Amino acid sequence: MKKVTRWICPLIFLALCAAVIWFLRLFTVTDKEMTYIDWQSAVQIGEDGAETPYALDDAFTTMPEQDRSFRFTAILPEGLGSGYLMFETSGLELSVSLNGEEIYSSAAVLPEGTLGMSSANIPLQEDATGELTVTCTILDNMNTVFPPLLRFVPIGADQAQSMSYANLFGIPAGITSVAFLLAAGLFLLSIVRKKVEWSLIPLSVALLSLTAYRLIPSCGYYFLPEAAMRIFSWQGLSWLAPLALMVYLAMNRRRDFWKMLGIAAAWSAGALLAGYLISLAGGWYLSYYINMSVSELFQFGIYNGLLYWFTLWLALACVLISAYWLMCSFMWQQTQTHTLEMKNRLILDSYHAIEQKMRDSATLRHEFRHQVTTLDALYQQRDFDGLGRFLNDLKQQEARLVQTQFTENFTVNVILQDAASRAVQANVAFDAQVHIPEGLTIPENDLCTLLMNMLDNALEACGGVKKTEDRFIRFHAEVKNGFLAVKCENRYDGSLKEDRHGRLQTTKPDAEAHGFGLSQMSAIAGKYHSLLDISHSEDHIFVVQTALKLPKEKEK
């Protein structure tokens, strides 16, 4: 199941990425495109009104002389919807008819020194169709479009195409700007943690450069001063992002980093290949764009488009990996802090135990002197019956003494002594059967994390049991066949708190500050090739057990 999850989760992530890209792509393309209307036939009209066929091929290659007249016919396609006809009128005297009814006429000569060409927009009824006829006379064969370039423009096409053009540059800029904020935030967070991640600076520079690289040259003319446009239009800025990324990669020479980057590259290449094949089969734009870019790369050395998209992918992959590493660093630091707190508590508890033993020793010495005096008095009086009763009382007192030596292993013994002392104070019956050697190859940090969390949870659970006679903790540990087997049983009140995944949660009111015990014990078990087995029975007995594989001496 674990291996299946490792494959399913990346596939789900790739599917989500594809869905987001597909959704964003909807805002960069539009189906409201112009439809070019092809001429079906053409005739030249003489001065006497005689008509002679005119080859359309000649019309597109040779400009006729001035004052010549022509008539072109075309069929308006069906299903065009609402829109208007558009064509240039400069240098022509013309009239336009639809199904024999004139819908437009004009005569336009372009004034000398004028830039641009005038055009006509003729609204049509929705789903208009039929034969379209254009009769024109050339007034200025130097400043005209001949034959008239007739197109049908749907309502809203200009605005939709302008927005899609802007989105083509705006959406990648928006993605990189979010990634830039993430990288900058991670850097500032590392400063707060007093462990500065300097490599995030070149990564932030790369993302900021990618944000401005396409957006400003394409749309900045309308919003930025001319001086700023000259700066951002410098071609050298296109190399800023790749160079900054090279610096970032040089600063992250960790093996794990390159391993994760390789995995990301493999998944991305697979997704791109799948997208390319699907696009190629469906005749979509992605396969055409990739083919065109690769062709330009090999034929003309034009690699700006490919370089941009590769740099964009690399920058996004790097910022995600950096965020992952920083999150792992936070978790590791939190675990270390918690472990240190437990070690400090263990040391403090050991100090208190030693202090209590010294006090108990002083009390015992004091009682011993009284007992010796009593024994001497009974002996002097020859009261052997009284002497026997007194010795019997001493034996019973010795039998009631709490066990103080559980095992030869110092760390485990101190932990169990502390747990036994707290169990007595909480009216919990504590029984420990431990068979482990003095030296273990498992580090003390890991032993403390596992055993102290296990016993703390057991004592806390017993504290919730109302009847004191029902409270108990049974602890067992032994080394066998290269494994350290640990088992802890305890009574609990029958109430357990679980999350939506069935994982146990802390019942303490400040859950954010607690709740790490089971996860830390699971991490220790996994570190030594084991699992943390947790079970509970109907009679309210909670069981936690594991078997840690003992590392060899050199792996300690």
Give a nutshell description of this structure.
With 556 residues, the protein is α+β, with helices and mostly antiparallel strands.
Structure in words:
- The structure is a single chain.
- The protein has helices at residues 2-25, 56-61, 157-192, 200-219, 226-232, 240-251, 255-282, 285-300, 304-380, 384-399, 410-425, 444-463, 517-527; strands at residues 35-36, 41-45, 51-53, 69-76, 83-88, 92-98, 101-108, 119-124, 130-138, 151-154, 429-435, 472-480, 483-491, 533-536, 541-549.
- The chain is of the alpha+beta class.
- The strands form three sheets. Strands 3-2-4-9-6-7 form a six-stranded antiparallel β-sheet, with no helix packed on it.
What keyword list fits this structure?
single chain; 556 residues; alpha+beta; 5-stranded mixed β-sheet; 13 helices; 52% helix
Strand order of the largest sheet: 3-2-4-9-6-7
Largest sheet entry: 6 strands, antiparallel
What is the H-and-E element order? HEEEHEEEEEEEHHHHHHHHHEHEEHEE
Q: Which segments are poorly predicted (pLDDT under 50) over 5 or more consecutive residues?
A: 509-515
Give the CA-CA distance, first to last residue. Answer: 31 Å
Shape: rod-shaped
Figure out the total of helices: 13
Mean pLDDT score: 79
Our estimate of the beta-strand percent is 15-25%
* Backbone CA Rg: 43 Å
Structural class: alpha+beta
Give the strand tally. 15
Which bin fits the share of residues in helices?
Answer: 40-55%
